[in-house]
Automatic annotation (TrEMBL):
Keyword Metal-binding among UniProt keywords: yes
Gene3D superfamilies per record: B-lactam Antibiotic, Isopenicillin N Synthase, Chain (2.60.120.330)
InterPro entries in the record: DIOX_N, IPNS-like_FE2OG_OXY, IPNS-like_sf, Oxoglu/Fe-dep_dioxygenase_dom, Plant_2OG-oxidoreductases
Domain Fe2OG dioxygenase as annotated: residue spans: 209-310
Catalysed reaction, written as an equation: jasmonate + 2-oxoglutarate + O2 = (1R,2R)-12-hydroxyjasmonate + succinate + CO2
Domain of life where this protein originates: Eukaryota
Protein name, entry field: Fe2OG dioxygenase domain-containing protein
PROSITE patterns linked: FE2OG_OXY (PS51471)
Cofactor(s) in the UniProt record: L-ascorbate; Fe(2+)
């Protein structure tokens, strides 16, 4: 597909703009009035203490079915009502989480010419990037990122991973192993909480042939944060997202009851959210939810999104156990490859892609 071979216009690194000392942001980054955080954030003081659920996974083992029933109920409720929750005591070493975050922060503070060696294209997005979608003249987000494939092994290419800073590739590889293990355990928990056999959801992903990728987001300081977004409103197109965020700099906002709730990350927690593929497979019992990222004039922010996805070429459709006369299949089959092409062409567009899959009645 030739139109995915290159960007439609020269790529500008947002970090370079931020570090140039400009007092106002270029017009390309100014969101429409209806999308600006200053107009959409709910000012009601009663929302100040609202947060996505925090769930303790103490005792979670490989089979995923030894959590207390109360914990399973919390997860099920969070998936139905929020599409998001935080997990603590998840088995990943806190010190290692800090090491991973700071290793990537070091990468984004390397000289530009070193980072440019890993510049990406819209064909795969793998590498160092600064935009999503190939729509010419699109309003852009105030962020840079690094995207890489972890699974399947046929797509895993260490040469496309950053070599500097020292040990970066080794740290990424170990982080991937830890997140694949955690993701697999959470998949079993979700399957059980849907009333299915523990391996049912994983099998619908392709069993051992699932995909996994990492997107590291870097949000530089922004002189006019009230006009921009670090990442536009969207639901994640994949299966399950495990987000390691900067708990000292809030930025993630989740849409709940038509209000934007700013997530307050717990230290050394992972933020887990349901992607569109699980919404389809669960026949909308579990829902992916719109979220976005606001930016900050005083502090940069970094987050790591690890995406646990279905095998790219198998049709994803509602699981038959969750389809009935009272609740027929809500979505038409589509492979993940076909689905994510939408994002690569248009960029993040709220929930418009998942809504386009609704089966005609």
């Amino acid at each position: 597909m030739n139109k995915l071979h290159d960007w439609p216009e020269p790529v500008i690194r947002v970090q370079s703009l931020s570090e140039s000392g400009l007092k106002s942001i270029p017009e390309r980054y100014i969101k429409p009035a209806t999308d600006r955080p200053s107009l959409n954030v709910e000012e009601d003081p009663s929302n100040m203490d609202v947060n996505i659920p925090i769930i303790d996974l103490t005792g979670l083992s490989e089979d995923g079915n030894n959590l207390p029933q109360s914990t399973m109920d919390q997860i099920s409720l969070a998936c139905r009502e929020w599409g998001f929750f935080q997990v603590v005591n998840h088995g990943v070493c806190p010190g290692f989480m800090d090491q991973v975050r700071e290793t990537w922060r070091s990468f984004f503070h390397l000289p530009m010419e070193m980072k440019q060696a890993y510049a990406n294209s819209p064909k795969t997005y793998e590498g160092y990037g600064s935009r999503l979608g190939i729509e010419k003249g699109a309003i852009l987000d105030w962020s840079d990122y690094y995207y890489l494939h972890y699974l399947p092994l046929t797509l895993k290419d260490y040469n496309k991973w950053p070599a500097p800073p020292d040990s970066c590739r080794e740290v990424i590889d170990e982080y991937g192993k830890e997140l694949v293990k955690l993701g697999g355990r959470i998949m079993k928990v979700l399957s059980i909480s849907l009333g299915l056999k523990e391996d049912r959801l994983q099998n619908a992903f392709g069993g051992d042939n699932f995909g996994a990728c990492l997107r590291v987001n870097f949000y530089p300081k922004c002189p006019q944060p009230e006009l921009a977004l670090g990442l536009s409103s969207h639901s994640d197109p994949g299966g399950l997202t495990l987000l390691l965020t900067d708990h000292q700099v809030p930025g993630l906002q989740v849409r709940k009851d038509d209000k934007w709730i700013t997530v307050k990350p717990a230290p050394h927690a992972f933020i887990v959210n349901i992607g569109d593929q699980i919404q389809v497979l669960s026949n909308a019992n579990y829902k992916s939810v719109e979220h976005r990222v606001i930016v900050n004039s005083d502090m940069e922010r970094l987050s790591l999104g690890f995406f646990y996805n279905p095998k790219s070429d198998i049709p994803i459709q509602p699981m038959e156990e969750l389809v009935s006369t009272d609740k027929p299949a809500l979505y038409s089959p589509m492979t993940f490859d076909e689905y994510r092409l939408f994002i690569r062409l248009r960029g993040p567009k709220g929930k418009s892609q998942i809504e386009s899959l609704h089966s005609p009645r």
